[in-house]
Amino acid sequence: MARSGNTPLACLLLLIVSTALLGPPAAAQTPADMDDLLAAMDRLSLKVPMSVYGRDPVKRFLGELARERCDQQAIADLGDALDKAGYRREAVTALTRFSETCGNHAGSLRMAVNILLRLSDYEAAVGLASRLIALQPFNDNGYFLRALAHDRGSSPQKAIDDYATAIELFGNKDRISSGPAMPRWSSNRGCRSILPATRPARPGRSLRPT
User: Fold this and answer.
1) CB distance 167 to 196 below 8 Å
2) Phi/psi of residue 104, nearest 5 degrees
3) How many whole angstroms separate alpha carbon 112 and alpha carbon 172?
4) pTM of the entire structure?
5) How far does Cα 200 stand from its chain's mean position?
6) How far apart (Å, rounded) are the C-alpha atoms in residues 8 and 209?
7) What does the pLDDT look like over 94-129, one tens digit per residue?
8) 122-210 adopts what CATH topology?
């Protein structure tokens, strides 16, 4: 009987010991987690309201970039999440900064150019596409994106030059290795009637079939 009478006291002691071993509740760790998110945002020059960066999916992808600052999948997911949340200009900034701080990553620049095209900021799109071309001078996609920007920005001759270069690079990939950039077809006036029919249906996609 004495043993059973001590059962409530023993349970209380066990509860106290268990609580002490478990440590502080998860909420106490929130400030540190938020500091990591803010550090990632600062690195990406990203400025959005707390209602955006403090909630998923943006919060989740920022957390991934806080742990792995050059995670290419995470920056693509973050750019897409910001785009869908309506923060497209901020997405461009984050994608561009990621490229600058992570070895001139071309994929993030490509994504940024496509967003700028949808924002109708053709001048900025030309600038980023030119940076993409400098990184990948023998890739047709950079020239194609810049051609779209010139085309929609009322610079038809520049658009023709870049469309032609993109088509030439696409058709000569097996022969491209190194050396100076390939000559463009700017003197071929026949391109004016040919190029509109040769544009891919979806802007921003490589001329290569996938």
Assistant:
1) no
2) 55, 50
3) 27
4) 0.69
5) 22
6) 73
7) 999 999 999 999 999 999 999 999 999 999 999 999
8) 1.25.40
